[in-house]
Write a structure and sequence with these properties.
277 residues, mainly beta, Trypsin Inhibitor V, Chain A, three-stranded mixed beta sheet, 17 strands, 12% helix
Length: 277
């Protein structure tokens, strides 16, 4: 890095050729052209061969890494060593490990790489809560509570109540069931919420969550754009728009009235339509 900074200060154009070397540590400049001591002008191209470290001979430990990291790492091994290793079966499990990280693999770490042509991965879905004891949410903003409940897979029914105090607008006044009740995923919790007369809606408003798993081999592992639209009586709105790779899990909370239609687009092409009552 110090060498690169020095070349940039001298306004020289640097071309890096990374290679694996068993006798040079990672990021060390092994060779350069022009040779040391040569006189060069500003703007001249300087070619550097930089060590990638020792050639990989065993399967690495990918525990705690993301699927995108593993995919890029395997592509890197192919690029510099010519060894083709693909991602095999991907299994998603509930785990205390961060969502989207590797919690298991086969073959295991330190397996000789010569006999390996694919690596199966176990990916964490995070700690999915199947049931929980309901807290007392009275006095809290309904919008904050709806986000929390949606991520736990609970449907929210909002009953608007007329209030005159602006300080209580969007504030939960009461709840059903009461605090301490065991609530399971996909069950409904009802909140009575204060609204000024001008903001009262008589229709049911629900907190929901859309879960979408990109197929591991979509677009041959290339990055794709995922866009999710929600449509209900309030109109059509975008709730997600980002780049993802195959195998990624997407979980987005949102609010909508019934009925609701969800449109999932991949690279601007309609991939899936879901209907919610």
């Amino acid at each position: 890095i110090d060498g690169l900074i020095e070349l940039q200060k001298k306004k020289l154009y640097v071309v890096i050729d990374p290679r694996y070397f068993s006798n040079y540590p990672k990021n060390i400049i092994v060779e350069q052209e022009p040779k040391p001591g040569s006189i060069v002008r500003e703007g001249r191209e300087v070619n550097l061969i930089v060590s990638k470290g020792p050639i990989i001979s065993i399967v690495e430990d990918y525990t705690g890494k993301t699927l995108a990291y593993v995919r890029n790492r395997l592509e890197e091994i192919f690029s510099f060593q010519g060894k083709t290793i693909e991602i095999g079966n991907i299994t998603y499990v509930s785990s205390d490990a961060p969502k989207g990280t590797v919690v298991g693999q086969y073959p295991p770490p330190n397996t000789p790489i010569g006999s390996v042509d694919k690596i199966d991965l176990i990916i964490s879905r995070g700690n999915e809560i199947e049931s929980f004891y309901l807290k007392n949410y009275v006095g809290q903003d309904i919008n904050d509570v709806m986000q929390k409940m949606a991520l736990r897979g609970v449907l929210i029914h909002v009953i608007p109540e007329n209030i005159e105090d602006p300080q209580k607008n969007s504030i939960i006044l009461s709840q059903e069931p009461e605090e301490g009740t065991l609530v399971k995923r996909n069950e409904t919790v009802t909140f009575h919420v204060g609204y000024l007369p001008s903001e009262v809606q008589t229709d049911k408003l629900y907190a929901r969550v859309v879960n979408f798993d990109l197929p591991p081999n979509i677009e041959s592992g290339k990055e794709v754009n995922v866009r999710i639209l929600v449509k209900d009586k309030a109109g059509e709105r975008e709730v997600y728009n980002a780049k993802n790779k195959g195998g990624d899990s997407i979980s987005i909370p949102f609010k909508s009235y019934s009925p609701t239609t969800i449109y999932i687009y991949v690279n601007e092409g309609l991939y899936e339509v879901r209907k919610l009552e």
